[in-house]
Amino acid sequence: MCRYIQILIISSIMIMVSCQDEENLIISNEKNLIINEINYNSSEVFDTKDWIEIYNKSDTIIYLRGYYFTDENPDHIYLFPENSFIGANDYIILAQDTTVFSTLFPNVVNLYGPFSFGLSGKGEEINLYDKFDNLIDRVEYKDSYPWPTEPDGNGPTLELINPDFANEIANAWGFSIENGTPGIINSVYSDSLLYIIRKLSKNSY
Known about the structure:
The structure is a single chain. The protein is of the alpha+beta class. It has helices at residues 2-20, 98-104, 193-202; strands at residues 33-39, 51-56, 62-63, 68-70, 77-79, 85-86, 91-95, 111-112, 123-129, 135-142, 158-160, 173-175. Strands 8-7-2-1-11-12 form a six-stranded mixed sheet, with no helix packed on it. A four-stranded antiparallel sheet has the order 5-4-9-10, with no helix packed on it. Strands 3-6 form a two-stranded antiparallel ribbon.
């Protein structure tokens, strides 16, 4: 009985919060390939150059032949090699400088790159397309509130709190411990309903 009442209270709070600010609602993310972590401005003492992490939330391997990554400049394109793939419920890293990245993160094995352009330190739109030019995922991150500002040259990365959250929304992101968690579950990961409520209540666009 008590648990039933608790669930009703939590549900009521979520409805109230969403009614107050619908844009803050972290809706379900139905995509299988997710831009899950972004390092756009490394610290001077741990400079990996730019990189992103992509997560496959499906239960099947996804082959990446013909897939490509871009930023806001249409001339900036990284085309995944012919034999590229991402395992079921697994991660890959796309690094601007694979040599530097591997030096600082030697245990990361699912590594792709390099790419010849950098990610903007001021924020920009980044995109993943399939071989048919279908948009698979897009994030337009920023280095200012309501996005976490700690990743802007201070060491942490942008981390998606949960792959089921809509990653185009600032409230769905946090900042990592230390210098990021490439290739493993994000340090800010949470599926707590109360965490979501606090996040929705705290931030606004």
